[in-house]
Write a structure and sequence with these properties.
This protein is an all-beta fold. Helix content is 0%, strand content 48%. The chain is built from no helices and eleven strands.
Length: 128
Protein backbone atom coordinates (compact mmCIF):
# COMPACT_ATOMS: atom_id res chain seq x y z
CA UNK A 1 0.00 0.00 0.00
CA UNK A 2 1.30 3.40 -0.91
CA UNK A 3 2.36 5.71 1.92
CA UNK A 4 1.36 9.35 1.42
CA UNK A 5 2.48 12.46 3.29
CA UNK A 6 1.03 15.91 2.63
CA UNK A 7 2.78 19.21 3.33
CA UNK A 8 2.49 22.88 2.50
CA UNK A 9 -0.69 23.84 4.31
CA UNK A 10 -1.10 26.79 6.63
CA UNK A 11 -2.68 30.21 6.77
CA UNK A 12 -3.08 32.05 3.49
CA UNK A 13 -4.85 35.28 2.60
CA UNK A 14 -7.76 35.27 0.21
CA UNK A 15 -6.47 36.06 -3.26
CA UNK A 16 -2.99 34.79 -2.46
CA UNK A 17 -1.53 31.43 -3.37
CA UNK A 18 -0.27 28.26 -1.73
CA UNK A 19 1.09 24.97 -3.02
CA UNK A 20 0.41 21.65 -1.38
CA UNK A 21 2.69 18.66 -1.88
CA UNK A 22 2.05 14.95 -1.49
CA UNK A 23 5.06 12.67 -1.25
CA UNK A 24 4.63 8.96 -1.95
CA UNK A 25 6.96 6.24 -0.79
CA UNK A 26 7.50 2.53 -1.17
CA UNK A 27 5.80 2.18 -4.55
CA UNK A 28 6.13 2.72 -8.28
CA UNK A 29 4.49 6.13 -8.18
CA UNK A 30 3.66 6.26 -11.87
CA UNK A 31 1.38 3.23 -11.45
CA UNK A 32 -1.05 5.23 -9.32
CA UNK A 33 -3.66 7.73 -10.39
CA UNK A 34 -3.83 10.35 -7.66
CA UNK A 35 -6.24 12.87 -6.25
CA UNK A 36 -6.82 15.66 -3.77
CA UNK A 37 -9.85 15.80 -1.49
CA UNK A 38 -10.82 18.18 1.29
CA UNK A 39 -12.99 18.17 4.37
CA UNK A 40 -14.31 21.25 6.14
CA UNK A 41 -15.63 21.10 9.72
CA UNK A 42 -19.06 19.51 9.84
CA UNK A 43 -18.98 18.57 6.17
CA UNK A 44 -18.29 15.40 4.23
CA UNK A 45 -14.99 14.85 2.47
CA UNK A 46 -15.26 16.10 -1.10
CA UNK A 47 -13.35 15.72 -4.33
CA UNK A 48 -11.06 18.57 -5.40
CA UNK A 49 -8.87 17.34 -8.26
CA UNK A 50 -7.36 14.19 -9.75
CA UNK A 51 -4.57 13.32 -12.14
CA UNK A 52 -3.78 10.24 -14.22
CA UNK A 53 -0.63 8.11 -14.03
CA UNK A 54 1.25 10.15 -16.60
CA UNK A 55 -0.32 13.49 -15.74
CA UNK A 56 -1.93 13.88 -19.14
CA UNK A 57 -5.49 13.72 -17.80
CA UNK A 58 -6.83 15.90 -15.00
CA UNK A 59 -10.22 16.47 -13.42
CA UNK A 60 -11.42 19.30 -11.18
CA UNK A 61 -14.40 20.07 -9.02
CA UNK A 62 -16.38 22.95 -10.45
CA UNK A 63 -15.73 24.97 -7.30
CA UNK A 64 -11.96 25.07 -7.93
CA UNK A 65 -11.77 24.94 -11.72
CA UNK A 66 -9.67 27.78 -13.07
CA UNK A 67 -8.10 28.52 -9.67
CA UNK A 68 -6.40 25.27 -8.63
CA UNK A 69 -3.94 23.20 -10.67
CA UNK A 70 -3.01 19.59 -9.98
CA UNK A 71 0.31 18.23 -11.23
CA UNK A 72 2.79 15.47 -10.54
CA UNK A 73 6.49 14.78 -10.85
CA UNK A 74 6.92 11.02 -11.17
CA UNK A 75 10.71 11.30 -10.92
CA UNK A 76 10.24 12.82 -7.44
CA UNK A 77 7.29 10.62 -6.42
CA UNK A 78 5.38 13.79 -5.63
CA UNK A 79 2.02 15.30 -6.51
CA UNK A 80 1.12 18.98 -6.13
CA UNK A 81 -1.91 21.20 -5.78
CA UNK A 82 -1.31 24.82 -6.70
CA UNK A 83 -4.04 26.91 -5.12
CA UNK A 84 -4.36 30.38 -6.65
CA UNK A 85 -6.86 32.99 -5.54
CA UNK A 86 -8.12 30.87 -2.65
CA UNK A 87 -11.35 31.88 -0.96
CA UNK A 88 -12.41 31.53 2.68
CA UNK A 89 -14.72 28.70 1.61
CA UNK A 90 -11.64 26.72 0.53
CA UNK A 91 -10.67 26.39 4.20
CA UNK A 92 -10.44 22.68 4.99
CA UNK A 93 -8.14 19.79 5.71
CA UNK A 94 -6.70 18.69 2.38
CA UNK A 95 -5.96 15.02 1.80
CA UNK A 96 -4.04 13.35 -0.99
CA UNK A 97 -5.16 9.93 -2.09
CA UNK A 98 -4.16 7.16 -4.47
CA UNK A 99 -6.32 4.92 -6.62
CA UNK A 100 -5.51 1.20 -6.40
CA UNK A 101 -2.35 0.34 -8.28
CA UNK A 102 -2.92 0.12 -12.00
CA UNK A 103 -6.49 1.44 -11.81
CA UNK A 104 -7.20 4.03 -14.49
CA UNK A 105 -8.68 7.43 -13.82
CA UNK A 106 -11.98 8.37 -15.43
CA UNK A 107 -14.93 10.62 -14.72
CA UNK A 108 -16.79 7.95 -12.75
CA UNK A 109 -13.84 7.18 -10.46
CA UNK A 110 -13.64 10.42 -8.47
CA UNK A 111 -15.51 9.39 -5.33
CA UNK A 112 -13.75 8.93 -2.01
CA UNK A 113 -14.46 5.18 -2.15
CA UNK A 114 -12.59 4.96 -5.46
CA UNK A 115 -9.33 5.83 -3.69
CA UNK A 116 -7.70 3.23 -1.46
CA UNK A 117 -4.77 5.02 0.18
CA UNK A 118 -4.87 8.31 2.05
CA UNK A 119 -2.47 10.73 3.66
CA UNK A 120 -2.98 12.23 7.09
CA UNK A 121 -4.11 15.60 5.74
CA UNK A 122 -2.83 19.17 5.91
CA UNK A 123 -4.85 22.14 7.14
CA UNK A 124 -5.39 25.09 4.82
CA UNK A 125 -6.99 28.17 6.33
CA UNK A 126 -7.91 31.05 4.04
CA UNK A 127 -8.40 34.39 5.77
CA UNK A 128 -10.57 37.11 4.29
Amino acid sequence: QVQLVESGGGLVQAGGSVRLSCAASGVTFNSYAMGWFRQAPGKEREFVAAISWSGTSTYYADSVKGRFTISRDNAKNTMYLQMNSPKPEDTAVYYCAARPMGSPLFLGSLRTRDFGSWGQGTQVTVSS
